[in-house]
Design brief:
Number of strands: 15
CATH superfamily of the largest domain: Response regulator
Protein name: ABC transporter substrate-binding protein
Largest sheet: 8 strands, mixed
Pfam family, one: Peripla_BP_6
InterPro entries: Leu-bd (IPR028081), Peripla_BP_I (IPR028082)
Distance between the termini: 26 Å
CATH architecture of the largest domain: 3-Layer(aba) Sandwich
Family: Belongs to the leucine-binding protein family.
Radius of gyration: 21 Å
Helix content: 25-40%
Structural class: alpha/beta
Strand content: 5-15%
Number of helices: 17
CATH topology of the largest domain: Rossmann fold
Number of domains: 2
Organism: Hydrogenophaga atypica
CATH class of the largest domain: Alpha Beta
């Protein structure tokens, strides 16, 4: 594959990222696998989205230090969306055909995910949406190109409610309680609601729904409602500056942080560091990993990337919650390509369509994850034609005033509840779009 002179910087960014992924001298002969990045380094989510992109890009650099994907080097190019759906679509169109063609997109935005879901079947480019996007896209029978690997919003909602029930002494103890849900007033925030409503109907608790307009820097009226109604618990489905604003308002209102629980986009260091000790007791469910400063993969990134002056962002964020989410996202993207190479040819550059097969046939055993540096960080992931999520594990961590500490054992979302919800929603989508379920032969191709 020939590279243009533009690619000689190796990490090419529409929004000013520095740090090479490939040594320029090696690029002329190296085969490369292109992984576009839809970044959010500006705007209201910048403190949270920036470490994700840094972690993603650092792991891609580590892959190259390790020898690439069976010799194929990774190439990253960023395009800045500022978390705006229209800009995300523009970035997608700009990047999808570059450097031999995009392998996979990870938009880090539910709004962008909804928009791109309409485009990717035609372009034959898969999309990984770990922990966000459409929850019903776990149904590979309808959503052939979408992969909410390792979790979606209904997994987050179910496991955070499991944790609350465990703390109270069982689901029966939630009967008659009131749970307020403060959510980003967007597709992202609303995606949480179906599982909350399902569990409320099952267990007899009531919901106080509190939509928070973006960007969420003004929430006094929201927390006035909390003060008036005094719910037993508050669950946050927030992102960016909205989360620390909510926690600061809880402090001002006197609502106990021990009764507040976030989903996995509402529980990282940027959300709490400015509140500090005032946020002590606040918890959030995590999509398997949390802050993993002592993990083998972090130690390897520090040794082989940052120590060589090739780190994408500041060294002190390496291993933090959202940095690790970027690392995990990059690992999943790479391992799908590795799986595809097993079928289509080791050491070959994989097309988006071939990569899609790889993401549908992931088999990340514990031994494989441990060998990649994720021992103690992740549990096995195994996808199929019908299951595009691959695992439903989570844990809860709690802010101790200066850092997060684990506060639960491993939790697993109840697939007996979630799987029928996913299928019903996917079938509804298929009906609206006049789509047929994939034939059995398609699952074997």
């Amino acid at each position: 594959m020939k590279l243009s002179s533009l690619a000689l910087s190796a990490s090419i960014v529409c929004a000013g990222l520095t740090g090479a992924l490939l040594a320029p001298a090696a690029l002329a002969q190296d085969k490369v696998q292109f992984f576009p990045v839809l970044s959010g380094r500006t705007g209201p989510v910048a403190p949270n989205a920036t470490p994700w992109a840094n972690g993603h890009n650092d792991y891609m650099k580590l892959v190259n230090v390790r020898g690439g994907i069976n010799g194929v080097k990774t190439l990253v190019e960023e395009c800045e969306t500022a978390y705006a759906t229209d800009r995300g679509v523009e970035c997608y169109e700009r990047l999808k055909g570059k450097h031999g063609g995009a392998t996979v997109f990870q938009p880090l935005s539910t709004g962008i995910t909804f928009a791109l879901t309409e485009k990717i079947p035609t372009d034959k480019i898969p999309m990984i949406t770990s922990g966000y996007g459409r929850s019903d896209s776990a149904d590979g029978g309808i959503f052939k190109w979408n992969f909410p690997l390792i979790g979606h919003y209904w997994v987050a909602g179910d496991t955070v409610l499991q944790h609350i029930a465990n703390k109270e002494g069982g689901w029966d103890k939630l009967k008659g309680k009131k749970i307020a849900v403060g959510y980003h007033d967007s597709p992202f925030g609303k995606e949480l609601l179906p599982i909350m409503q399902e569990r409320a109907a099952m267990h007899g608790f009531s919901l106080q729904l509190l939509p928070i307009p973006a960007p969420g820097v003004e929430q006094k009226s929201i927390w006035l409602q909390v003060r008036q109604q005094r719910p037993d618990f508050v669950v946050l489905q927030t992102w960016g500056v909205m989360t620390p604003t909510a926690i600061k308002e809880a402090v001002a209102t006197g609502y106990p942080r021990e009764k507040m629980f976030g989903t996995w986009w509402s529980g990282a260091e940027p959300d709490l560091k400015d509140v500090g000790a005032g946020a002590k007791g606040y918890s959030a469910v995590m999509m398997q990993h949390g802050a993993e400063f002592n993990s083998p993969v972090v130690k390897e990134i520090l040794e082989k990337v940052h120590a060589k002056g090739q780190g994408t962002g500041p060294k002190e964020e390496v291993g933090s919650v959202l940095y690790m989410r970027g690392v995990v996202g990059a690992m999943l993207a790479v391992e799908g390509v590795r799986a595809a190479q097993e079928r289509f040819g080791k050491g070959k550059v994989i097309t988006g369509e071939q990569a899609r097969w790889g993401y549908e046939n992931l088999n990340l055993t514990q031994a494989k994850l441990d060998a990649l540096g994720f021992k103690g960080v992740m549990r096995p992931v195994s996808t199929s034609c019908q299951d595009h999520m691959g695992s439903a594990w989570a844990r809860v961590h709690t802010w101790d005033g200066s850092k997060f500490v684990w506060a639960s054992d491993w939790l697993q979302a109840d697939e007996q509840i979630i799987r029928p919800m996913v299928k019903a929603s996917a079938d509804k989508y298929a009906g609206e779009k006049k789509l047929a379920r994939r034939a059995a032969a398609d699952c074997q191709s």
